[in-house]
Design goal:
The chain is an alpha+beta fold and about 140 residues long. Helix content is about 60%, strand content about 15%. The chain has a three-stranded mixed beta sheet with strand order 1-2-3. The relative contact order is 0.09.
């Protein structure tokens, strides 16, 4: 299947250029993940290479500021890896995280309720006993 897809992409000049561009960005992203500190590479990614200027997208302003501070080090590192990067441009591009489904409320089983009641009988008045009583009422 990959051979057929590659043959299809190579059959058209525009698709061939698009495929080469995508491969180039993927390669730069792999290098970037290895070069940048992990905390920054998780919060940013390669957008494109415009001439010899690498364009990065940062999830927020703090990440962008830190990337600007280390951009000269990143450029040097890219150059030592054979990538023709002479400048870095950083853009803030906030990612919208998908909403997660609300998990159903968990219930305490019968054995848990019995163990909780036994614990409540043994506890003296304390914050732990108050919290345990609230848990017992909710379950």
């Amino acid at each position: 299947m990959p051979h057929r897809l590659n043959a299809f992409l190579d059959s058209n000049q525009d698709l061939r250029r698009l495929s080469q561009r995508a491969d180039q960005i993927a390669t730069l992203q792999r290098h970037y993940q290895q070069l940048a500190p992990a905390s920054l590479s998780r919060s940013s990614h390669v957008v494109q290479l415009d001439g010899q200027t690498l364009i990065l997208a940062a999830d927020n302003g703090a990440v962008a500021a830190k990337l600007r501070q280390i951009s000269s080090e990143l450029i040097s590192s890219f150059l030592t890896r054979g990538c023709e990067v002479t400048g870095i441009q950083i853009r803030v591009q906030v990612r919208v995280k998908p909403q997660t489904e609300a998990l159903p409320a968990r219930k305490v089983g019968q054995n848990g309720k019995k163990a909780l009641d036994t614990l409540l009988d043994e506890l003296t008045d304390s914050p732990l006993k108050s919290a345990s009583e609230r848990l017992a009422r909710r379950s």
